[in-house]
Amino acid sequence: MKYLIVIMLAVLVAVGNLWGFDVGVDGAGECGSNPEVVVYKLASCGPAAQDGSVAVSPKCCSLVKRVDKRCLCAIVLSKELQSRGLNPAIAVTIPKRCKDPRRPKGYKCGAYTVP
């Protein structure tokens, strides 16, 4: 039920934005939408963001490679990521573990640095 409510909220925000309504997603410029919502789109990355020894899924890598470095940082620092028990210090290593040559190596994200 909890996931259904979150999905419904995301759909309402997306539809509202498409129709030009201000639906309260201010300050979400890094990701084009609220980083808290983007975390749900990256759900396939969950296991890899909890444990650095877990292989990153191809789906996760495909999604992460399309994320801008500022958005990645907003996601890593989001309350949603941390409330799900995901470790920001491990999550920031996912682009490297995906062998993304475009990863923002050395980019500072709060207390974390992209390896």
Any overview of this molecule?
Helices cover about 50% and strands about 5% of the residues. With about 120 residues, it is mainly alpha-helical. The chain has a domain at about 30-110: Plant lipid-transfer and hydrophobic proteins (Hydrophobic Seed Protein, Orthogonal Bundle). It has a two-stranded antiparallel sheet. Strand 1 and strand 2 (about 110-115) form a beta hairpin. It is globular and about 25 Å long. The chain starts with a helix and ends with a strand. It comes from Rosa chinensis. Keywords: Lipid-binding, Signal, Transport. Plant non-specific lipid-transfer proteins transfer phospholipids as well as galactolipids across membranes. May play a role in wax or cutin deposition in the cell walls of expanding epidermal cells and certain secretory tissues. Pfam families: LTP_2.
